[in-house]
């Protein structure tokens, strides 16, 4: 009997030891899945990291995961949340990614839902979506470069949503770091108390514990209740070829379990929940999700278009009031995308739809070109957004599409003259993003082009070059502010068409990489636009037309005809390549015909025989010019239209 009592006592003691040992490290805390689903709502912290490009957001995410045990130290893994191949190649974040972390602070277990956001202006929609599910944000600033243009934009976006801001100065270990100067800038520009600023080195792990303390102490818990009916906010989704659309949701109220049926407020369709997971960062199955948490819900949603970002979901039979939908950014740059071969059209369509599920800001419209066949006209937030989208098509879906030159949407006011408006469905104002839809200039009363409000922060010694570039791009200066003894902030209104191509690259080139550039949508302004047409031997080629400002039309025309002269193969007839505005030719190149020596077989005889052959050749070429169709290979269109 005594042996049994001692054995039982030893087992109880071993169990107690096991429990103590179980939570003796952060790794053990993360291993217990119950810590994720049983945590109190008041101990949940949903926050994002916002910063300018290359200020260390992904590195800080890695350190936070290491300290909390979600990532093993010394594993050799870096930029863990940058899962896309394009992110690893370019070294930038293009997709917001979420990870759930368990952290023990003051004998309480906290669930930290971290969302790592992009820093480039072209991915501002990702930042907006992330902040819609957050209650706080870490504002990360590089101690070497200081406050940049996108730092200001992200800060104002976060404060407009009433998020708690925790300012963090990163890279204090660098040789040229100036954390004191950056602290003064934060006080002067953003009115942030220097005592609230944390100074860290994400690379070396310095100060990471203080960051976690501030997250637990200062960021408020989500405004959620487990007692209310289930209500969830969809803020991200992606496509899995085996499970369909997977939806990342913020559980606002109530709880959800597997096999329950949820209904979309947007389209009224119901879906049976097949799987529930949390990201730690790998996907881990759970049996339920409760209020305040962020989780991944799989519900056999096969049609990727049904997953609407910003949608609200509820349990079948218990309808709720939809949550506030965040404002989606409008596309600003448009480009045509066509398959290399028309047999690949359906495959390209499927690939685009799956990517758009993961990037809801891209708009799609069917398009047709006589030269390139059936394709699509896509809208993007910027040129980098376009480049990343195309690169993802190539890497993730093995597609190699043809991309036409990007352009923007113009507005045109049609004259209210009897009989004219019927050609435009009775509308007196139309929007044009494709040159082939450009109206007759006689019908247009006024043209309007989109502009952006650009913010440039540059060292003082580069101000002259930056201002010269803005003037060249038809910019209008709004303000100029001295941030400190060395840096100046410039505000310009610039035409969007002048910004989308290479403005950012030129700013970096002129300033040796020290200037930063950010822009936001402004307004449409009156302007003078023209349609630049390309004629080959007098016949217009609609695919090569272009909409441009009258001031830059000459340069564009000369470049285009020179490029066509190089690309169009020589033929039996002479080809006149002309760039025209209406009936006026503003640039011309001539592609000489092949010259066949018809007299090469003559070996003496009278000179009249030679003249007779040359006359016959001249008459034949004259007749050929009248009836011949110029053969322009498809590859030529691709090379000209391609960016």
From TrEMBL:
Catalysed reactions listed for this entry: GTP + H2O = GDP + phosphate + H(+)
Binding sites annotated in the UniProt record for GTP: 51-58, 116-120, 170-173
EC number: 3.6.5.n1
Coiled coil: none
CDD domains the UniProt entry points to: EF4_III, LepA, lepA_C
Domain Tr-type G residue range list: 42-223
Subcellular location: Mitochondrion inner membrane
Membrane disposition: Peripheral membrane protein
Domain of life, per lineage: Eukaryota
GO cellular component, one term: mitochondrial inner membrane
Pfam family, one: LepA_C
The protein's enzyme class: hydrolase
InterPro entries: EF-4 (IPR006297), EFG_III/V (IPR035647), EFG_V-like (IPR000640), G_TR_CS (IPR031157), LepA_C_sf (IPR038363), LepA_CTD (IPR013842), LepA_IV (IPR035654), P-loop_NTPase (IPR027417)
Recorded GO MF terms: GTP binding; GTPase activity; mitochondrial ribosome binding
Keyword terms of this UniProt record: GTP-binding, Hydrolase, Membrane, Mitochondrion, Mitochondrion inner membrane, Nucleotide-binding, Protein biosynthesis
GO biological process terms on file: positive regulation of translation; translation
Cited function: Promotes mitochondrial protein synthesis. May act as a fidelity factor of the translation reaction, by catalyzing a one-codon backward translocation of tRNAs on improperly translocated ribosomes. Binds to mitochondrial ribosomes in a GTP-dependent manner.
Similarity comment text for this entry: Belongs to the TRAFAC class translation factor GTPase superfamily. Classic translation factor GTPase family. LepA subfamily.
Protein name as it appears in the record: Translation factor GUF1 homolog, mitochondrial
Organism: Chironomus riparius
Biological classification of the source: Eukaryota, Metazoa, Ecdysozoa, Arthropoda, Hexapoda
